[in-house]
């Protein structure tokens, strides 16, 4: 397995990181999160114009053919810049579900890649934890049309989405995936802020008209998309922890205590080295998972779970150490450190605690 970026991948990494360095950061992210959509439409349009929304999709579908490596590259930069852009939910999660469905959803996928449509996945349900296989939300045929009934929680960018991919139980057919236009549920969305200030919402589906996307293979389609989602979310965590480490290292070089810089105390040097090791542990397994998925390796599913769990373990260690080394100011809103920690914590809420994915990993490896 080649762990070096090719020319196209390196160009993508350079451009998206440069854009984030110039336009993102704590103040920009907080200001964007307070906008009506919960993100900057101008920045989203720039992402579309630069082709970053097309990065993970196959060339025959209008993409760059970079697969999981493409979404990994973009998401790391977004995590570093604390960006609230809905790349993960619209491009990676929704887009990767649609890409498996072929010509029937061609127009929807084109809208996602062009940035003209922002979609979100309505997955979580109160009391269900992270077990998505048997949703309480139901879908039934009424007069030849599908209608969805139920409630979904923590739907990212719910108030700004043009439509939702909804998981539901179908009588006699198990797990199904359905597309619901935003207008069907606009009056039934209660918006909330996640801990990192990204916008989400709780949605009530009351006989909402829907179109079925799958042909009885919805669970397989969903699970395949989740592999790439976990890698992309882990990459976002990686970007956040890398930025937290870099800022902590810089702080240790200038902050003086007992007459010398913090970075000259051996015990703090050891802690900074441990932080660096945790970042690289996460980076290594995330890259391995992304490249395995792109190349179709049989261990890609297990690696995606391992990458996600390691990103949480490493992110927690790096975040806690960054706060402690900064001291009291690390606990305040004046520094970005707390925002990086909140981003990792919010992602854990959305995509699953370590134990859930460790159990899944064990099942895959059995």
Portion in beta strands: 15-25%
Give start-end ranges of low-pLDDT stretches: none
What is the ordering of alpha helices and beta strands?
HHHHHHEEEEEEEHEEHHHH
Mean pLDDT: 94
In angstroms, what is the radius of gyration? 21 Å
Order of the strands making up the biggest sheet: 2-3-7-5-4
In angstroms, what separates the terminal alpha carbons? 24 Å
- Number of helices, counting only DSSP H or I runs of 4 residues or more: 11
Envelope shape:
globular
Binned, the helix content reads: 40-55%
Q: Structural class of the secondary elements?
A: alpha+beta
Largest sheet: 5 strands, mixed, barrel
Would you count the extended β strands for me? 9
Properties at a glance:
five-stranded mixed beta barrel; 16% strand; 9 strands; alpha+beta; single chain; 366 residues; 11 helices
Care to describe what's here?
The protein is α+β, with helices and mostly antiparallel strands. It is built from 11 helices and 9 strands. The strands form 2 sheets. Strands 2-3-7-5-4 form a 5-stranded mixed beta barrel. Strand 4 and strand 5 form a beta hairpin. The two termini are 24 Å apart.
SSE blueprint:
Elements (H helix, E strand, L loop, with lengths): L6 H17 L2 H8 L7 H9 L17 H14 L6 H13 L6 H9 L4 E4 L15 E5 L2 E12 L6 E8 L3 E8 L7 E5 L5 E14 L5 H37 L1 E2 L2 E2 L4 H29 L5 H27 L10 H15 L2 H12 L1
Parallel strand pairs: 1-4, 2-4
Antiparallel strand pairs: 2-3, 3-7, 4-5, 5-7, 6-7, 8-9
In short:
By secondary structure, this protein is of the alpha+beta class. It is built from eleven helices and nine strands. Helices cover 52% and strands 16% of the residues.
């Amino acid at each position: 397995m080649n762990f070096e970026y090719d020319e196209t991948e390196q160009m993508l990494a350079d451009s998206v990181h440069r854009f984030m360095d110039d336009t993102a950061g704590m103040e920009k992210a907080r200001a964007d999160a307070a906008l009506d959509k919960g993100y900057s439409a101008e920045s989203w349009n720039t992402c579309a114009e630069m082709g970053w929304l097309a990065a993970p999709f196959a060339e025959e579908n209008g993409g760059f053919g970079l697969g999981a490596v493409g979404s990994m590259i973009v998401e790391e930069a977004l995590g570093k810049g604390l960006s609230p852009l809905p790349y993960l939910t619209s491009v990676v999660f929704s887009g990767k579900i649609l890409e498996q469905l072929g010509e029937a959803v061609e127009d929807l996928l084109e809208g996602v890649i062009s940035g003209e449509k922002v979609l979100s996945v309505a997955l979580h349900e109160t009391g269900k934890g992270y077990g998505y296989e048997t949703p309480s939300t139901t879908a039934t045929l009424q007069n030849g049309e599908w209608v969805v009934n139920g409630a979904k929680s923590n739907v990212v960018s719910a108030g700004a989405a043009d439509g939702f991919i909804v998981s539901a139980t179908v009588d006699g057919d198990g797990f199904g995936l359905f597309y619901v236009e935003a207008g069907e549920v606009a009056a039934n969305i209660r918006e909330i802020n996640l801990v990192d200030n990204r916008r989400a919402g709780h949605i009530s589906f009351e006989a909402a008209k829907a179109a079925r996307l799958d042909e009885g293979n919805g669970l397989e389609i969903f699970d395949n998309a989740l592999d790439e989602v976990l890698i992309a979310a882990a990459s976002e965590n990686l970007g956040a922890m890398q930025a937290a480490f870099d800022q902590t290292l810089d702080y240790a070089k200038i902050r003086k205590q007992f007459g010398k810089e913090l970075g000259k105390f051996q015990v703090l040097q050891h802690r900074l080295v441990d932080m660096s090791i945790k970042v690289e542990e996460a980076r290594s397994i995330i890259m391995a998972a992304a490249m395995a998925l792109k190349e179709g390796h049989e261990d890609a599913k297990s690696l995606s779970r391992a990458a996600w769990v390691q990103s949480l373990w490493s992110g927690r260690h790096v975040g806690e150490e960054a706060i402690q080394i900064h001291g009291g100011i690390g606990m305040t809103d004046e520094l970005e450190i707390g925002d990086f920690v909140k981003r990792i914590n919010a992602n854990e809420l959305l995509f699953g605690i370590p134990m859930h994915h460790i159990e899944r990993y064990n099942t895959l490896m059995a």
